[in-house]
Write a structure and sequence with these properties.
Layout (H helix, E strand, L loop, with lengths): L10 H11 L3 H18 L7 H4 L15 H6 L8 H17 L5 E2 L4 E2 L1 H17 L3 H20 L28 E7 L12 H7 L4 E5 L3 H14 L4 E4 L19 E3 L5 E3 L4 E7 L2 H19 L6 E2 L23 H13 L9 H39 L1
Parallel strand pairs: 3-4, 3-8, 5-8, 5-9
Antiparallel strand pairs: 1-2, 6-7
Helix pairs in contact: 5-7, 11-12
Length: 396
């Protein structure tokens, strides 16, 4: 969330903010009732507070039954529907019948709301506490996060750009082919899944899901697909883009490019059987430490080596998304900007200079600008809506 100190607001804006966050209980209740009625009338869901936080959910019911393969893959993945996600959704539906209440979503991150939330919270905590294995706990946590975000986003978010349908930016995205010698893996935390201000989604919007593949942290099916690809490619073909200040990462110049090519006779070179695999950790900095640890443990299990190859970019500055989603001062970037920076630096390698990697980087940067425009416009529109409510209150 982009937090602004109260003292930086003009007096009129401070009154608006105070009204927004300190409304009398009766006012909040009337607002919630109006939102629920509007959601039922529209047959969809309405977002509540998700713009500043990039939450995926709205203020309505989950709608429909289980998540189909078509719906699941429509959100940006080519994998089967994870078994545990399906199981969690079935449990949620069963709880609706047991409690004779309906799921409703809203607030930060599209969380469950109302009395159903109270009952579900008791049940899921009981299940979580009953799990003695840490791996099963992680899988259950990830599946529940994803299941709720899927149900809460139905009818509200565009499946491709993860923005509210009225703010869909898909028509502005220009698809671009990524060089076959590169494959991106978006290793995403479940809390970043379906976030409106997530930038990793732009990579598969531009390059496609085979060139930029989503891998959700804690989802067994996704992680097995990723590690199978790594094992097949070989240890020297996998790199992690993780500019951790506590590590001593390598640079793009350390990447062995020759392994991507094979000789075809004479001086000509052709693309080899396996691409270079680049892992992009897509999550908040507080979550990325756990994600890095999990990658490192699997790396050691696979290759018996604790030295997970990390690279840092020398030319990367603050991305445009830093305005909406600040990062630590020592690395003020985002996932898509990091991918664009990597492509730009690879373009400087003599062997790759003719592959138009710079143009592919520009396509990502352009999409970032479009996303920033969409999120900023939505914020301004919501701000004007708050102002109108405050003016009406003063008139009354």
């Amino acid at each position: 969330m982009l937090a602004t100190p109260a003292r930086s607001f003009p007096p009129r804006c401070r009154r608006i903010q105070a009204y927004k966050y300190n409304k009398p209980r009766s006012v909040r209740a009337r607002a919630a009732s109006s939102m629920a009625a509007a959601a039922e009338t529209k047959g969809g869901v309405i977002g509540a507070g998700e713009v500043e936080n990039g939450g995926g959910g709205g203020g309505g019911g989950g709608g429909g039954g289980e998540v189909s393969l078509r719906e699941w893959q429509g959100w940006g993945t080519s994998s089967p529907v994870p078994a545990m996600v399906t199981e969690v959704i079935r449990e949620l539906r069963a709880l609706e019948l047991e409690t004779d209440s309906s799921m409703r979503f809203g607030g930060l991150g599209g969380k469950l709301q109302g009395e159903f939330k109270v009952q579900e919270d008791k049940k899921h905590r009981k299940v979580y506490d009953s799990l003695t294995d840490s791996e099963r706990k992680l899988q259950f946590f990830a599946a529940r996060q994803i299941a709720c975000r899927l149900l809460g986003s139905r009818g509200y978010l565009c499946q491709k750009c993860w923005l509210p349908k009225e703010d869909c930016m898909c028509s502005r995205i220009v698809p671009c082919s990524l060089w076959d010698g590169i494959r991106f893996w978006l290793y995403m935390h479940p809390k970043d899944f379906l976030r409106q201000n997530n930038t990793g989604k732009l990579l598969w919007q531009i390059f496609g899901t085979q060139a930029a593949t989503l891998c959700l942290f804690g989802i067994t099916e996704h992680e097995e697909i990723m590690w199978h690809a790594f094992s097949h490619a070989g240890k020297g073909m996998v790199w992690l883009l993780y500019p951790n200040k506590n590590l001593f990462p390598k640079s793009v110049q350390d990447i062995v490019i020759d392994g991507v090519f094979r000789k075809t006779g004479g001086q000509d070179m052709d693309l080899g059987d396996e691409p270079l695999n680049f892992v992009l950790i897509d999550g908040t900095w507080s979550n990325s430490a756990a994600m890095y640890k999990r990658l490192k443990e699997r790396w050691k299990l696979t290759w018996g080596d604790e030295d997970l190859p990390c690279i840092s970019l020398s030319t990367l500055g603050a991305s445009v998304m830093h305005k909406l989603r600040p990062q630590p001062s020592w690395d003020r970037t985002c996932t898509a900007a990091a991918a664009a920076g990597l492509l730009s630096e690879l373009h400087l390698r003599p062997q790759l200079s003719t592959l138009r990697l710079d143009k592919q980087a520009e396509a990502v940067e352009q999409a970032l600008d479009f996303l920033l425009d969409s999120l900023t416009s939505r914020r301004l529109r919501m701000g004007r809506s708050i102002t109108r409510r405050e003016r009406h209150k003063n008139c009354v």
